[in-house]
Amino acid sequence: MKVTAIGTGYVGLVTGACLAEMGNHVVCLDVNPEKIRILNEGEIPIHEPGLLEVVRRNVEAGRLQFTTNVDMAVQHGTILFIGVGTPPDEDGSADLQYVIAAARSIGQRMTDYKVIVDKSTVPVGTADKVKAAIDEELAKRGVEVQFGVVSNPEFLKEGAAVEDFMKPDRIIVGSDDEQATLLMRALYSPFTRNHDRMQVMDLRSAEFTKYAANAMLATRISFMNELALLAEKVGADIELVRRGIGSDPRIGYSFLYAGAGYGGSCFPKDVKALVRAAQDEGIPLRVLTAVEEANERQKRVLVDKVVTRFGADLTGRRFALWGLAFKPNTDDMREAPALVIVEELLSRGATLSAYDPVAMTEAKRILGERPGLSFADKADAALEGADALLLVTEWKEFKSPDFDGIKAALKQPVVFDGRNQYEPSLMKALGIEHHGIGRGTPG
Ligand code: NAD
After folding, report:
1. Which residues form the UDP-glucose/GDP-mannose dehydrogenase C-terminal domain (predicted)?
2. Which structural domain range is residue 397 located in?
3. N or C: which end of the chain has fewer CB within 10 A?
4. What tens digit of pLDDT does each residue of 357-382 get?
5. Is 76 found in the same domain as 150?
6. CB 261 within 8 A of CB 337
7. What pLDDT, in 10s, does the model give residues 181-216?
């Protein structure tokens, strides 16, 4: 099939590349010429495991191309995915300007039947707005062209995006257009061979499903983070509690890790957007409002622990930071807890030496030149002469580090373990002062 992916970010590029991998002919369009230049030079503008290989293979096979040429991209696809950003507006609602602009650019050019697929995370009712925008553009041109609008929210996880796209748990398709539904079934059939993973529903329910999923996941994290704070006070270990409750199949083990707060380009903005949309409908979502508040507090928990240990004035103190990305296996720094931690520690006079396996370029771009902040080219190098280590992102390479080396490099053996990667009893045996999240009394 002929497919166009509008927007070549984490979602659009993965969608385009993975659909090309299944034999489709895909054009990826972006308004950012720099991204297209990088892609046309055989590289990818983001870090996503396995993606570069899929992109190169399909470019080579002539099934995948990248362009800024809107005319060509719109003409190419029978199915056009809109995978552009939907950042939060000032009031927390999803800013739809990029989605609507993409829809208009389609309406301004289409000459034959198209299926326009909202893959971006968009509020309930957006498909109607996309339809209306396209209708308006067609009316301006004085032409009648048939089209269907479909909601197909994306559930991939950054860091495992290719795998998630290739082996989806479910494919949600919201559609009220029979022809569009048939084409979506055909497009996704290679991904549903084993069993039917496609759930077809009405447009609004599909749009809502994406927000509900992210809101549920964020709720589990904030729930555990709050319990972790209490666990510390009452001398309980949240890790043991997690295992204890996770064994109940009604609860399950996933997404119950206490830590330094959630971040990324999805949970924070999607929770905000849902809360905002509910407010507009006069249905305040109290649970989700608390989820967000709890997360804001949680992003500061590591700094609070540093302050309790070293005092409010951190002038003359130096800290090593391991991990900057909002989670492992990505270079995405959007809403990363590390950003809050860096700001707070610097504002208290500390100096920082940070290391992340892939997110340092992105971190430098976002944070800019900061007096007191330096980046180390290796994890070990960040430790030299620091008063303590803060583990912020649980990259694999931090899971079993050389603890003797850590002890030797730090001024005193103090570790703030923001992702509960190290066993308190082991740390104690090694003579390392370990401050986890919700792991009983520190020591
Ligand atoms: P992104 O910021 O990485 O990429 C968006 C891209 O769209 C950018 O390259 C931008 O230049 C391009 N763009 C903007 N307007 C355009 C236009 N009119 N024509 C062509 N290109 C245009 O965003 P992302 O992380 O890929 O997210 C995209 C959407 O998918 C968002 O709604 C997001 O919430 C959702 N989503 C993201 C993830 C994720 O893990 N990142 C997962 C599921 C859903």
Report:
1. 320-424
2. 218-435
3. C
4. 999 999 999 999 999 999 999 999 99
5. yes
6. yes
7. 999 999 999 999 888 899 999 999 999 999 999 999
